[in-house]
Amino acid sequence: MDMHADLILVEHDKDGVDLAFRADVLCGLSEQQKAIPARWFYDLTGSELFEEITRLPEYYPTRVETELLETHGTEIARRVGPNRAVVEFGSGSSVKTPLLLREINPAAYLPIDISGTFLRQSCHELAVKFPDLPIIPVEADFMRAVELPASVRDLGMLGFFPGSTIGNMVPHTAVDLLRSMRHTLGDGSQLLIGVDRAKDLGRLIAAYDDSQGVTARFNLNLIDRINRELDADIPRERFRHVVRWNDDWSRIEMHLEAVEDLAFVVAGRDFFMRQGETIHTENSHKYTPNQARLLLQAGGWTPSWQWTDAAQNFLIVLADASEFRSAP
Ligand code: AVJ
């Protein structure tokens, strides 16, 4: 698929079906290990449930990263410097983005998101808080290199990628993304990125299998979305939320497990699942600080500083765009 990102972003058929969603679901359900990309969690209900997750006692990442930005804001600002163009990969969180912008005093703010709806909403909220800041929404898929508007090309760039979203990608894809970011932001740029740390298994599992069952609802909402948007009849109540630690990949996995043999239809196609078979819905890779720095280096970024909390839960790394060189 090669098209101009600013012209066509989401293709729908005549019934309004999101064709990329349908293709991902039909392909994913046809695999040996059924799997659906985690990005499809975030319809309106999914986004609301994720907000609820971030407030759960067991889900520490959002809280800890926000505290890190608060505690070390002055030092981050000193290391970044003023008058940067802040390029956020994703629509921006209503809490973390204002925190950063207040500290570093940027010349412009450019959020990149594939969903124009989320993008416009978060830009609107920010414009109220920062009336003098030029805010330039960029509707594009940030997994590829993005051409930024000419008006900001002479500014120093700071990429911002909080939330440990990098952890959703397998290392291969994470490195591709970091390299795209390096390309998008250019020479002399910096990147501020949040990474969730490898830690005690009990705490990790609890963060993804909370006692109130909010994460279970978040996971199961994907079935509701498929049923609603793709003309499907997957029996949601015949699935359960499963969280696994995959030690080979150092990641938390979320799955939807069939509690009995099942048959269902999605977009006119028949699918079968045996009891105990799962649909893999999310990966959340956890890194030691050394692994996180190696990942950044592999993606063309040279770490220059890092911040973590006393309990060693979460890591924020500041990195410089690596210079290309032909010799060590
Ligand atoms: C927003 C993708 C980083 O992996 O921790 C939270 C999503 N999934 N609980 C994460 C999520 C289940 C979250 N990320």
Largest sheet, in brief, is: 7 strands, mixed
* Broad shape: globular
Mean pLDDT: 94
**If helices are DSSP runs of H or I spanning 4 or more residues, what is the number of helices?**
10
Task: Determine the structural class based on helices, strands and strand pairing.
Answer: alpha/beta
How much strand?
15-25%
Blueprint of the fold:
Elements: H1 19-30, E1 34-35, H2 44-54, H3 61-71, H4 73-80, E2 84-89, H5 96-104, E3 108-113, H6 116-129, E4 138-139, E5 156-161, H7 171-185, E6 190-196, H8 201-208, H9 214-229, E7 239-246, E8 251-258, E9 262-266, E10 269-273, E11 278-285, H10 289-298, E12 301-308, E13 314-321
Parallel strand pairs: 1-11, 2-3, 2-5, 3-4, 5-6
Antiparallel strand pairs: 6-13, 7-8, 8-11, 9-10, 12-13
This protein binds N,N,N-trimethyl-histidine.
N,N,N-trimethyl-histidine binds at residues 53, 61, 163-165, 167-168, 208, 215, 218, 282, 284.
